[in-house]
Specification:
This protein is mainly alpha-helical. Helix content is 81%, strand content 0%.
Length: 211
């Protein structure tokens, strides 16, 4: 039974990720072609019209995030790690440099103008800084051939990458069950969108260190 569950886990994870990734594609597709008044941008017209480069950073974040989400997930595939290490390295480089030069900096910029007030902004800015930091530490660790440290920081990095999914999951969940005001929703999901992900990874890393 334990062996069966172990074999089924990667398949179930892939199935689950595929479902949420398709939903993310549908969300991203709303911003194709490029427009300044569609979907989420409808409630950000003040920033669009008054903040220089807001649209540039917004689209840099939206378009790059979908690629790092897919690229990051493939990095944990054991077959790719063991039998296609060149593919693993190349996708990894793309994942790291996209986050360091596009996704995290643009997330930091638009986080400053996030909905939900001061505490939401603090959360999204913190998320972007940690995302950049964990990814950079993962890169530096592998350059020093410290693979365990590289893995630990890349797990943390992907936990924050995956917040693109969990944030939207919590939003749907909270609205469906409690119908809070939109500003309350933003204040809550700004934090629970990524902190539980990070705690799960830390719990996993802690257990691995005990083996």
């Amino acid at each position: 039974m334990k062996k069966y569950l172990k074999l089924s886990f990667p398949f179930l994870m892939t199935l689950c990720f595929s479902y949420f990734f398709i939903l993310m594609i549908q969300i991203t597709w709303q911003y194709v072609p490029f427009r300044n008044d569609v979907a989420f941008l409808q409630i950000k017209q003040t920033e669009v019209s008054e903040i220089p480069f807001y649209l540039f950073f917004f689209y840099a974040h939206v378009y790059s995030a979908i690629f790092v989400l897919l690229g990051g997930f493939t990095q944990f595939n054991s077959n790719l790690l063991q039998k296609r290490s060149i593919i693993h390295r190349n996708i990894g480089k793309l994942y790291v440099f996209t986050i360091l030069f596009l996704s995290a900096p643009s997330g930091l910029f638009i986080g400053v103008f996030a909905n939900g007030g001061f505490y939401s902004k603090i959360s999204f800015v913190t998320l972007s800084i940690l995302w950049f930091y964990f990814t950079l530490k993962g890169l530096l660790a592998v350059k020093k051939k410290n693979i365990p440290l590289h893995k630990a920081f890349m797990y943390r990095s992907f936990a924050l990458t995956f917040s693109a999914v969990t944030l939207r999951f919590w939003k749907v969940f909270l609205v469906y069950l409690f119908q809070p005001s939109p500003m309350d929703v933003y204040q809550i999901i700004a934090w629970i969108g990524w902190i539980p992900n990070l705690l799960i990874v830390e719990f996993y890393l802690y257990n691995q260190s005990k083996k």
